């Protein structure tokens, strides 16, 4: 029975890390560090739970379940639910939000800093065309994704990032203990860090990317299902450790920068400030290269994952190359709406999807405790959905809430424990789990 050699395992782990770690994974911990100040350690602990722990559990869930992808995993709840959840998740981390965000962040944080005074709409349009043209080139070669991301783009990204982090950490701009936390990080840094980890979308990506890891391992001639599962988990652990280290270092650099700068409006501007301080004009080039490569490799992974999934979902539909072109074209259009619009409407969707994803991951990992009963799965997910919809409504922009007249609905959240912290779904999910276990036991007795 063949298993991955250490060098092969590192290549697969590098590929997985490369798909996970985009520009959003840089800008959110940098912003968190600036806002958390001396509470950065507590905030980062929360961030690592949702930004690293959940993605790792998602990859592990797919590996342990031996499902052939997210559709197979989520269809354990029900076929219709599986199709709905799979499509929504892939469209969210794909052409609707995550892929367009990669292009807009690349432009906003990288190129825009180097081209002040240009027509921003035109410049973004031109940049997006080039960006997605390159992404499509790589995406149309899915069999080579291990080489392109794991052995080329990811090492290039880490080299660029290391230059910035080493310089910042060896000459800190301030003492973390003297930086006062601001906003929600002053009141509850851990819970705020937990919610900030949602923005990386990596728990969703963990469910989506797991099948790419499995396919890559199979291409390396590992065929035994149990060994594939073990190698998938091992690659996920290596990837998670590297992600955790970089998150911590970026958050620390962000916190230290408050000794010289006020908190920036977003993590992109914070990184730009830091890069310019240490390297002057060259800092802009370093940051632009780091962010663009980070976004490009994540985009390639997302397009590949979405394309291969939709081929499986609709076998009588378009071929993989057609899906790749469609997703690139749609992402190109949405990217030109601008970063603020993309972020504003992605947060509510994430507040809906994350609870469902967490429940699916945990029930999959603990499935042996209740025999992977569909009754337990269906009741738990069914009770989570209404609470997740309330979280979605509460996260909508104020204008959208007023237009939809959601105020009476949002009053319901005051009856949910932990709703003020963004976790109003937890108690309904636990109630659903309890009811599912009871009805499953009653069903077993009736059958006996």
TrEMBL record:
Keywords: Amino-acid transport, Cell membrane, Membrane, Transmembrane, Transmembrane helix, Transport. Signal peptide: none annotated. It holds the Pfam family Branch_AA_trans. GO terms for cellular component: plasma membrane. The chain crosses the membrane at residues 9-28, 40-62, 83-109, 121-140, 152-170, 232-255, 275-296, 317-336, 342-365, 377-400, 422-439. InterPro entries: Brnchd-chn_aa_trnsp_Livcs (IPR004685). It is a multi-pass membrane protein. Its main location: membrane. One of its GO terms (biological process) is isoleucine transport. The keyword Transmembrane applies. One of its GO terms (molecular function) is L-leucine transmembrane transporter activity. Belongs to the branched chain amino acid transporter family. Component of the transport system for branched-chain amino acids. PANTHER family: BRANCHED-CHAIN AMINO ACID PERMEASE BRNQ, BRANCHED-CHAIN AMINO ACID TRANSPORT SYSTEM 2 CARRIER PROTEIN. NCBIfam families: livcs. This is Branched-chain amino acid transport system carrier protein. It comes from Faecalibacterium gallinarum. The gene is brnQ.
């Amino acid at each position: 029975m063949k298993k991955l050699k250490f060098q092969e395992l590192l290549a697969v782990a590098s590929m997985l890390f490369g798909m996970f770690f985009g520009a959003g994974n840089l800008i959110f911990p940098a912003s968190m560090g600036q806002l958390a100040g001396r509470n950065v350690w507590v905030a980062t602990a929360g961030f690592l739970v949702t930004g690293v722990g959940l993605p790792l559990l998602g990859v592990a869930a797919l590996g342990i379940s031996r499902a052939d992808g997210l559709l197979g995993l989520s269809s354990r709840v029900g076929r219709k639910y599986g199709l709905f959840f799979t499509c929504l998740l892939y469209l969210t981390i794909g052409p609707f939000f995550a892929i367009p965000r990669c292009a807009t962040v690349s432009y906003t944080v990288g190129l825009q800093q180097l081209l002040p005074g240009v027509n921003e709409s035109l410049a973004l349009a031109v940049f997006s065309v080039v960006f997605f043209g390159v992404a499509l080139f790589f995406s149309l070669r899915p069999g080579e994704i291990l080489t392109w991301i794991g052995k080329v783009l990811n090492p290039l990204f880490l080299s660029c990032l290391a230059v910035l982090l080493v310089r910042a950490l060896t000459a800190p701009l301030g003492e973390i203990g003297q930086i006062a936390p601001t906003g929600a990080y002053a009141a509850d840094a851990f819970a705020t860090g937990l919610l900030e980890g949602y923005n990386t979308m990596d728990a969703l990506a963990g469910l989506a990317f797991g099948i790419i890891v499995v396919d890559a391992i199979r291409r390396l001639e590992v065929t035994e299902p149990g060994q594939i599962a073990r190698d998938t988990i091992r690659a996920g652990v290596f990837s998670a450790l590297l992600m955790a280290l970089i998150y911590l270092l970026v958050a620390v650099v962000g916190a230290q920068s408050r000794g010289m700068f006020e908190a920036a409006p977003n993590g992109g501007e914070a990184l730009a400030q830091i890069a310019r301080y240490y390297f002057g004009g060259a800092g802009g080039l370093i940051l632009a290269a780091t962010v663009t490569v980070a976004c490009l490799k994540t985009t390639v992974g997302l397009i590949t994952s979405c394309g291969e999934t939709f081929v499986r979902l609709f076998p009588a539909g378009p071929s993989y190359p057609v899906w790749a072109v469609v997703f690139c074209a749609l992402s190109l259009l949405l990217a030109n709406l601008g970063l603020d619009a993309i972020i504003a409407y992605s947060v509510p969707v994430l507040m809906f999807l994350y609870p469902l994803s967490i429940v699916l991951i945990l029930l999959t990992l603990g499935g042996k405790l209740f025999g992977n009963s569909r009754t337990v799965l269906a009741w738990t997910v069914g009770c989570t959905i209404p609470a997740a919809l309330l979280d979605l409504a509460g996260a909508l922009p104020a204008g959208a809430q007023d237009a939809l007249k959601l105020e009476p609905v949002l009053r319901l959240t005051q009856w949910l424990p932990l709703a003020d912290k963004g976790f109003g779904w937890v108690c309904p999910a636990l109630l659903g789990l309890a009811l599912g276990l009871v009805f499953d036991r009653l069903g077993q007795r009736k059958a006996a």
